[in-house]
Amino acid sequence: MNRIAAASRRAFTLVELLVVIVIIAVLCALLVVLIKGMVDKSRNTATKAIVDVLNQACEAYKTDEGMYPPTSPYSGSANLHFYLGGKRDHVEQYSTTGTHVVSARPPIIEFKKDWLDPTASTAQPNPPVQIYDKWQKVIQYANPGSNNLKSVDIWSKGKSDTDNGDDLANWIRDY
User: Fold this and answer.
1) Which residues fall within 8 angstroms of residue 27, CB to CB, at 6 or more apart?
2) I need a surface site. Which of 9, 41, 154, 158 has the fewest CB within 10 A?
């Protein structure tokens, strides 16, 4: 009998085990919420970087070509893929000889495959495809911009498809 009493004092009770299990479950739930928030924040940051790179590339295109990338012949951000990612023919005139040379300039930016439509077989703009954000939603492009009156508008609708304040745009600087 003495052995049985000693053994029962060393064991955990059912209530103690349930309390430990509940504490572990609460900690796991908090960890899941924390990780989800971190994933959303990293997607937000990566999408912001894509919008910024596209905006800078449009400015470089304007410097080279004297205008922003057109909104045709393709739709939306496929035009950016076409105009910013492809080689551009450029005519250079030399006044001393009176002749000109046609050369192909390198693309303004090299597109990463994970920025593009998942059905694209290559990152090259032949044929051009839409540019996607990190939520797998199409990046939007407008020339002329309605928010940037002297420039272009480039934006992502963010996590949601609605305009609920989570948009990431080149006219919003504090995102």
Assistant:
1) none
2) 9
